[in-house]
Amino acid sequence: MKYYLIAGEASGDLHASNLMAEIRNEDPSADFRFMGGDLMQAAGGVLVKHYREMAFMGLIPVLLNLRSILRNMRVCCGDIRRYRPDVVVLIDYPGFNLRIAKYAKTKLGLPVCYYISPKIWAWKKYRIRDFRRYIDRMFCILPFEKDFYGGLNYEVDYVGNPSVDSVALYKQQAEGGETFLRDENLSPVLPVIAVLAGSRHQEIKDNLPAMLDAAASCEGYQVVVAGAPGIDARCYAKYAGGREVCVVSGKTYALLNHSCAALVTSGTATLETALFRVPQVVCYRTPLPKLSGFIFRRFFHTPYISLVNLIAGREIVRELYADRFSRRAIGDELRRILDDEAYRAGMLGGYGEVIRLLGEPGASRRAAHLLVAFVGNLRATGRVK
Hints:
This protein has 18 helices and 13 strands.
């Protein structure tokens, strides 16, 4: 069968590439065409456009690049029309993908599946209308999403979480700690505080200085920054406030595996840190912090910003964002998770609860099985040619 996939950023490229590998296990004759990245290209198929030409985040970048975005949509729609896939598979990236879903469903009559739901449980709940109209199957990766969508009379499948898969695979293949410490010129004696300051330049600029200041207030530890893909080490030095900063690039899992605590910006990294059972402080600086805090508490549909707390449905890790974000608050919380054994144990116990709710590895495999069976059934019953 023929599959057209669309991923608009690096994380989507990773998850889509794993999904493609599992689809091929289910359907050895699978033919792929996609908008995505290097990992999807390595999985096999035809890359139409790289996500680097598509990844515009935030209101201002979108407005400045609107012409490029519209051109990318036209290219994508035309390519789908010519390719005539058996199914269109969308990976997150809702601003772009929901428009493609509408075109594929209403103009071409194609089945459309979504892997990794847009976060409408946080805001933009109105998008459920588009899901009902244009998305045939939704494969979710957060356990609470099944109940959330059920409350909106929209049936979805929870397939597990890809981070569970990737962390489990890393732990199976991981080398000894001595090798990592030696390769990165780290002390084998001093415990490590990991700093995960985000994957985008603006996030690093906003968060890194306060995170480093807070970590430096804890004596007897070595502070190590996880270098994000595509971010030059000089970027971290630029915002380090004149202090020397140790950056480990491309080895975030190894760093977490050898850390006793972490400072983490919100996002998938908070969940990965929990999967490694590293106590953490969630930090996220915003412009106009008082206004941002008011907007979040007044207009968002959830009381939390970190995946750890969202999955648990309660506060397990402290979230210091918007008007709660400060060097002092981050330092106080970090010292608490380092020095207060009962507090630390409570956080680790909460991690165990989250890990239980996420379930066993195999998200990509389960999603691929459901996807291939769904499209195969449509073909067998004549509902798609």
